[in-house]
């Protein structure tokens, strides 16, 4: 892959749609700036619910055809974001959606949650050593909100980064990811956005979600990087809309299948957990590549 651009960003997500909700503006920005953006999605999201009544038969308890449908939704979303390198961990359908925590699907053979971390990480090590990203983005140890596939995506991403850097692991040339970030949402910001939703669009959806329903909500002190994606707000909304079985979009808000409205945030927040900050605290980075020699803003 010697022809890849200087700046390379890898994102690891559990299901199709998580990337657009969490990082859509960031992905669109870096793709537009000429960075190489790679998305690895760990499952097809086969156990998800379906919003449009006309597609209700796709669910796992009926035709069990949601996975292949979501492959198409993800491809459409990536076209909106301008991201051409998107892959499924181990190939499409290798690991199945594990359902919500406590569901019997958690322990089903082939479920992502029941897969040993090192087995799944081996596939991601291949991607890391091929693409050689400087920056990796994934969830926090709770997966943002406790979904087993999100927790497992976190574990697999962190483990793969460790193994990819180990010269004793496998035969491909090792690669150390310089910076690892976890997805965050700033509590103060999302609270203000919920206040706007309640006052300006209280009837946009049948109900309104709670702040703590938003994955990755934390106080501002933990946030080290803030990507202003306002120039990509429309693109992010279009990518989310492409996941039509999962997301109903009413800009600047959206709802998942629970019909509870929440803000569609176009500033995206991150916590650096490995590597050096590109700017001294308490200033937040405005570029995930900040401080990286040969890969920062100057090299773009
Ligand atoms: Zn998910």
TrEMBL record:
The enzyme's E.C. designation: 3.5.1.103
Cofactor note as given: Binds 1 zinc ion per subunit.
Reaction equation(s) it catalyzes: 1D-myo-inositol 2-acetamido-2-deoxy-alpha-D-glucopyranoside + H2O = 1D-myo-inositol 2-amino-2-deoxy-alpha-D-glucopyranoside + acetate
Signal peptide as annotated in the record: none
An individual GO BP term: mycothiol biosynthetic process
Molecular functions per Gene Ontology: N-acetylglucosaminylinositol deacetylase activity; zinc ion binding
Cofactor: Zn(2+)
Function: Catalyzes the deacetylation of 1D-myo-inositol 2-acetamido-2-deoxy-alpha-D-glucopyranoside (GlcNAc-Ins) in the mycothiol biosynthesis pathway.
Protein name: 1D-myo-inositol 2-acetamido-2-deoxy-alpha-D-glucopyranoside deacetylase
